[in-house]
Each structure stands twice: as structure tokens, then as C-alpha cells.
Amino acid sequence: MTNLAEHAFVRIAAQIPGYPAPDAPALDWEAMRWGAAAFKQAFDEVYLDNGRSLKPDLIVATWNHLGDMGYRDERAFTPLDQWGRGEHYFWHSGGYGPTQLANRKLGDGWVNCLFLREMGGGKPFMLGKYEPIRVRNSIAEALATGGSGMGLYMPLDDPAGTAALARMLRFPREHAALYASSLVPDADVLLVYPREAIQAGNRAAARVLPIRLIRQRPPRPRRSASTAGPRP
Asked: How far apart are the C-alpha atoms of 26 and 87, rounded to whole Å?
């Protein structure tokens, strides 16, 4: 580019979701970073600045897609200090169902849930799974990782399904102490998601999540409901 004032761009490769092609020029990568920052800036101006000037207690969230936890995350190029800033909770589609046991597909999304919990700093999140078969399992999976249950395929149009759903969601409300420690890590391994490497163009980094053993210790004794509470 020799003359910026007269240069004609064939296209500006800033798209959400999107990821530059393997042979993409450096300008495409800068366009993706610019697009993510520009989208967040526009969102903040409309909802955080103007919206909350009209309604100070406005609840704000966005619906994004994680898919199968890879480099096409719709916030993949959002700067870390802007990721979810000003939002109350997060809704992401991912961990897609439906369950297909014959094809060895469980439709689980626990890795997505853990990612959202860490990126959101512990704020509530909802993983929208297209899973009409193992609804109870999906709710339990999200609650166990600090989420808010399941946001799609709730059987609200069927009386029997609604009654079962109410029972499933009543349990965590009545036994909130059992879930109070779900944000405290209690694991022997650490999943490392190479976000910076993905932003730098390393597609292969997203295909395998490195697992690092961080400590070895005997398992903790199971706690009864009477002693359940936040861990120190």
C-alpha cells in the first residue's frame, strides 16, 4: 500500500464469526482485531452508555456462539480487557446436541461452560444447547460448572414436561448451599486454552486442548448436605 488516501480496498476482512484463511495477509488479521473492537465499542455506546442513561438498572447481555470450543468463537478476537465488560450475564450456544449414542455423541458442553466461567470472571452464564433428549443432564452439567441451567428446549408447552422442569429447577434453588462452591476449583488437572496463539494464527492450537497436571492429592471426603457450604 503506497498511497493510503487513494488506496481502494477490495474487501475489509472483518467478520463475526470468522477466522482468516491460512494464506491470509497480515491486513486480514488486523481487520479481524479491528472488527471485534469496533463491535464492542458500538455495543457499549448503544446499550451501556445510552441504554443505561435512560434506564440505569438495564440488564445487558449478548448472545454469542462457541460451537465445539474452537477458533471460531465469536469473541475470539475481542481484547481480554473488553470481554464481557459491562454485561450482567452471558448466553452462548455450544456443546451442541442432540444426543446420538449410536454415533458416540453425548452432546456435552462442560468445556464450554468452564471457558465461560473463567472468561466471565464468575458472572452467570447460560449455555444454549440444542438438546431435547438429555435435558436433566444438561441442566446438571451447567449448574455444576457455575452456570444457570439450560436455555433451550425447555418443555414449557407440555404440562408433564413443565412439571418435571419445575422440579428440576426447584432443587438447586432450595439447595443453593450445595452449589455455592462450584466456582472454587477442585480439580487435579488444568485445561489450558491457547487463546493468544489462536489470535496469532495458530489454528492447530485450538484442535487439542493441552492438559497439564497441576497437583496430586488424595480426594476430598464427600460432604453431606448439612455441612455443604463455600469452601475456604
From this structure: 31
pLDDT in tens, 91-122: 888 767 678 888 887 777 888 888 888 888 88
In order, the DSSP letters of 148-213 are: --B-S---TTSHHHHHHHHHHHHHHHHTGGGGTTTTS---SEEE---HHHHHTT-GGGGTS--EEE
- Name the phi and psi angles at 128, rounded to 5: -80, 105
Task: Mark out the alpha helices in the chain (DSSP H runs).
Answer: 26-43, 52-54, 110-119, 135-144, 159-174, 195-199
Backbone angles phi, psi at 191, to 5 degrees: -90, 125
Confirm whether pTM is higher than 0.90. Answer: no
- Tens digit of pLDDT for each residue in 202-211? 777 766 555 5
Q: Using an 8 Å Cβ cutoff, are 144 and 108 in contact?
A: no
CA separation for the pair 139, 142 (Å, rounded): 5
Taking alpha carbons only, the member of 23, 67, 14, 66 closest to residue 42 is 14
Phi and psi angles of residue 37, each rounded to the nearest 5 degrees, phi first: -70, -40
